[in-house]
Amino acid sequence: MADLARHLRYFLVVADELHFSRAAELLGIAQPPLSQAMRRLERDLGVTLFDRLPRGTELTVAGHALRDEAERFLASEQRLRALMHSIRDGDLGTLRAGVPPETPAPALGELLRRLAQDAPGLDVDLQELSTAEQLEQLAAARLDVGLVHHPVDAADLVHGPVTRVRLGVLLPRTSPLARLPELALGQLAGHGLVTFPRSTAPAWHDLLLATCREHGFTPSRIRHARNPEFLCGLVLAGLGIALEQEALVRREPRVAWRPFTGDPLWQETSVVWPARNPHPAAARFAAVAGDVLQARPAHPARIVGAPGPWSVVYNEPGTGDRCPPVLGVLADGAGDDRPA
Question: Which of 15, 34, 85, 194 has the most CB atoms around it within 10 Å of its CB?
Fold first, then answer.
């Protein structure tokens, strides 16, 4: 195909000039190679393209027909090459990507917006999968990239930028521990723990519990929750505390988040993809995901002109009145987030 395209380009110059010497000069080659290329083109097509006359050169009927077709052929070839280059560079095609179920909605929205801006022709097939499910599907070539929780022991995977998020404790705002600005892990002794099932991310699950034990917290009982809403519900029911990132507290105003002294717990996340035959857009996805996750604000952005953020205040029963518990809100600056 390369020889055909080159010969057709030569042919168009000769067809315009109708003079082999001038055409060779314009092409920057000697006349003999040009004449040989045109005779080879005629042999390949099985026709005579030029009437070589003593006083010049004329196009035959086949030559006139080829002139129009050659221009269309070369234009199509150029489009084909551009298309293949776009696919090679990850600008086109479908990228099958996995993300953990707890990935915040703002981060997902920004990730998809950035990818659409950088590669408008790329179709991102985003799937909600645990770390273990993503690793399994990556190994089976049913997924192109995955956003997973570390540690991940897979020598056949390439890792993108690692994002570290500090973990704290989630507990009801009515808990006495919520009155403290920060806690030591050992202060949670005697509490149960609500966390993700081990099967979803075995290595991360084991590391989390090992770190807790090292700092004096061995849960009295472990309950599992796959989604943030269920996790917060178990925490509110007093069935255990949870070790999560601060962003999760925004889902439920009756839950408080407190950091740990010395920040012993960090969750590390990165995009991974196969080292062999990677998708062309894998590295692009990893870079954008790293930027988006690293840039997440510690607190939700405030809308200009809107009140907030809000502090939650409880009137607990049994404090001198017979009224049921009342959930109220105070504008920022009107109170703190401690139980009333």
Answer: 194
